[in-house]
Input
Amino acid sequence: MLSYVLKRLLWTIPTLFGVTLLVFSMVHLTPGDPAAAILGDKANARSVADLRAKMGLDKPLYQQYFIYINHLAHGDFGRSANSNEEVMTEFLDRFPATVELSLVAMLIAVFFGIGAGIISAVKRYSIFDYGSMFGALAGVSMPVFWLGLMLIYFFSVKLGWLPVSGRLGYEFDIEHVTGLYLVDSLIAHDYAAFWDALKHLILPAIALGTIPMAIIARMTRSSMIEVMKEEYIKTARAKGCTRFQVIFIHALRNAMMPVITVIGLMLGSLFAGAILTETTFSWPGIGKWLVNAVYQRDFAIIQSTTLIIAIVFIIINFIVDLLYAFINPKIRLS
Amino acid sequence: MSNLVEIRNLQTYFYSDAGVNHAVDGVSFEIPQGKTVCIVGESGSGKSITALSIMGLIDPPGRIVGGEILFEGTDLLRLSDAQLRKVRGRDISMIFQEPMTSLNPSYTVGYQIDEALRLHQKHLNKKERFEKVVEALDLVGIPDPREKYREYPFKLSGGQRQRVMIAIAMACEPKMLIADEPTTALDVTIQAQVLDLMKELQEKKGTSLLFITHDLAVVSQIADEVVVMYRGHIVEKASAEELFNDPRHPYTRALLHSIPRPGVTPRKSQLDTVDDTVDYLAFPKEIR
Amino acid sequence: MEPFFEFIKQYRKNRAAVFGFFIALALVIMAIFAPWIAPYLPADQHLADRLIPPMWDAGGSAAHLLGTDDFGRDLFSRIIYGSRISLMVGAISVGVSLSFGLVMGITAAYFGGKVDLFIMRIVDIMLAIPAILLAIVIVSILGPSLYSAMTAIGIVGIPTYARIVRASVLAEREKEYVIASRINGSSNLRLMFAVILPNCASPIIVQATMGFASAVLEAAGLSFLGLGAQPPTPEWGAMLSDSLQFITTAPWMIFYPGLAIFLTVLGFNLMGDGLMDVLDPKLKEKG
Output
């Protein structure tokens, strides 16, 4: 087991290296001089040269890369060209909102996706099966931002049940502990704020969760169908297990292995997928901030965000692999 | 001698776009108390479907369309799902051909035996069940049963897995054990050991055994009664002795002929085969 | 012709797939005949007719089937012309992904060893960054425009194709017909592209169809963020992002362009699903 973990850990190094290289070369792939771009049209040659020197752009490329890596290793992700704030500070201000949205979306996706997948597999070729599998295909085809707007239109504009946008009503103030409002409001025993945060969260989470839910449902169904054909399912039935026991004790655990891998893969991309949902719902996460950075060619922000999300993505995949190994006795015990 | 099981005119059909497959078509036979009945036949003859029908494990597109399966006088086909579940594993158990895939890879050996006890012997507590599981493992000849309790199936050899399967099936001391080609996937030496084990357990516990195989050598070792199936029908029923000494049906004769024997040089220097072109159902349908 | 008819027969069994095919067909017809179908030019502004609702709503008029936007442009016409952009985005993005993915996948599988390791490392690195984020990075390098978006989506798709091509070439490489062709003295290039590749077509066709769907979806997403097609281009995603402030007053401006995206993507996905049923049933079982 330990050797498996180490080997898996070792595999992430070249990937990390590649991602830093990619992110580093972004600035240099961009047409035009980044220093000139930052200073704008009115800058004179001298101040451009000064900034180039300050940014280290006058050094050879490989040296610049090592300087970049060195900074990263010291936790220095650079400063925003526009606000001159530390990128990391700005990022950490916004990231919890994205994490909270993504986690809740994933929770919804996992719960309903696995549920629908199991029912479809067990009641194969039933109306429910056809319906939910068509629904899953529709879900994969859904433009998230449009779904979000439609949800806003029906539940907020027409019915007035839920807030249109934002994360929390102005009348509430929650002390930041984790940055996740649902958790922070519970810590503060402020249930009104919790309820309000939940109401703000529910629509964006449904919108963001739709695609993963559809994918999970399809995966679960096909995996369950595969597993239900196995001999040990017959053994369990021959023992006198109830249908419930056969499905939930004997089939589900084995069927979940490929599904868990997919869930892990999607959790990482969910942070990125949140960009669209956040724009739709004016959710104060990293999405809008990143898109603005692209308009303003604020490379430090784009580079750092990409790098951090890639690292988070790699870490999540690593954890998922460990989890996979843990539920699979064959890997756990070897 | 009384019959534990009487099967009357069993019909199990499979439905598809291409038409109806009469997998088991009017099969009748008896399984006497404490005896071993072998069903012999080539693959596709309906022998496994017959076994699964007794267990009530026929899934769509298959369906039992007619007949009776009397177990101690009760027709199993008339029982509800819940009633049938109580019979499965407690009164009738089954083991399968593929020991490599018959055990759930995600649970320990002990858990999987224990499960049968939890389902059918609810009066036992955890400690008692543990002791019974260890006893069962010991009984089927697994060394170090206390350690093996916590082992996962992938750590065991094929023969050991089949022993575990037998332990699961015998855990509740059923009145009948159905074994669907339990030795086919095993090495020859292991085959003999597993067969010996089954015979030994049967004698000890007085279990009736329905043994399904295509291997006549195995039949000669363990059968009291033999049922020969061909394309969903029974072509011959006889005691093992009669069958081997005086096979009556042409198909049975062809089947027996196809066994290579030491010392006998096959004609035309090739092994005898059952002739595919002959329709054996054209002969008298059932001989007993 | 025989296998083709067999293919049609099998495909027709999946009714959803037939539905998908007709959506795609309708889209192609819309794109080709846009000037004849659309009553107005997409950029025509009728300032007197601003924010008219669809014709079946109160206040709607037969002159504007799906109503007009805040500049008085006919929504129906814009959506019709928008199909040209979506089809172009899909075709070009898939073209980029497919051509690079094919070459990388075949090279990796055919030569194996270090070449394989190197190429698959690049693929892994690209997959380590979530697709939409990688697309945003590429757009930020190239500057926001429809062409940047297409390029970005094309590049982002490469690893998926490379993996699929590699896997199917690996499966074919050791088969007898390849060895026979090698013995007959076929060159590497001939073996790779003329002998092996045609036998790997099924999964690639399926992936290209589904990839077309996701390219349309991603392009609409980038345009919605303002990183793709720029106004006044009648791109469906861009039309949505221009209409956000009208969600309470003129919801049709949001409803119909989004529906167009959804149906287009659904159509190609259904087609891909149907093709998978016919061409690659084993893949389907795996999910």
